[in-house]
Amino acid sequence: MNTKDILEKLVAFDTVSRNSNMALMHYIQHLLGEADIQTTLIPNAEGTKANLLATIGPTDSGGVMLSGHTDVVPVEGQVWSKPAFKLTCSDGKYFGRGTTDMKGFVACAIASALKAQRRPLKAPLHLAFSYDEEIGCQGVRSMID
User: Fold this and answer.
1) pLDDT value, residue 132
2) What is the 3-state secondary structure of 32-53?
3) Residue 137, pLDDT score
4) By the 8 A CB rule, do 116 and 65 touch?
5) Residue 64: per-residue pLDDT
6) Which of 14, 71, 132, 134 is catalytic?
7) How many Å apart are CA 44 and CA 22, to the nearest integer?
8) S-S: 127 plus which of 2, 54, 105, 139, CB 3.0-4.6 Å?
9) Cα distance from N-terminal residue to C-terminal residue, the chain
């Protein structure tokens, strides 16, 4: 699966901060799991949102971490000429809620991890995807604790 295909799926999830991100996290977990990448979900107290952690390669300390958030800001009150939760392309540019902040990066990180899984790595590659960055970085706190 290429980066664009992953991004198309990610944008389709309405992960406005007031909503759950569990369906999106389960999609990422499934996608990585198909490549034999182990993941850990860290749910919030209500079980409505979760962070996701994954490590590719050796389990040594150190390595590189690709970190991003999965929530987006609301679309209400904004004029969209295209559907906000559908990836569209116009003049070589992609449009859809979160393509820039930050589902585009998350899609790139996932695609990179899938490629890295097929190679012998000298150091670990970690993925860390959080929730509620748009409303005070709430989710990342449970990954740090």
Assistant:
1) 81
2) HHHCCCCEEEEECCCCCCEEEE
3) 67
4) no
5) 96
6) 71
7) 10
8) 54
9) 33
Amino acid at 75: V
CB 137 within 8 Å of CB 40: no
d(CA 124, CA 56): 6
133 is catalytic: yes
- Residue closest to 66 by CA, chosen among 24, 38, 102, 12: 102
Q: List, as one string, the DSSP characters of 84-144.
A: TTS-EEETTEEESTTTTTTHHHHHHHHHHHHHHTTS--SS-EEEEEES-GGGTSTTHHHHH
Domain boundaries 3-70+87-144, corresponding CATH code? 3.40.630.10
Whole-structure pTM value: 0.93
| Given the residues 8, 132, 133, 134, the one annotated as active site | 133
Site of tokens 């996290």: 25
71 is catalytic: yes
Q: For the chain, which ranges sit under pLDDT 70?
A: 135-137, 139, 141
Q: What is the pLDDT of residue 135?
A: 65
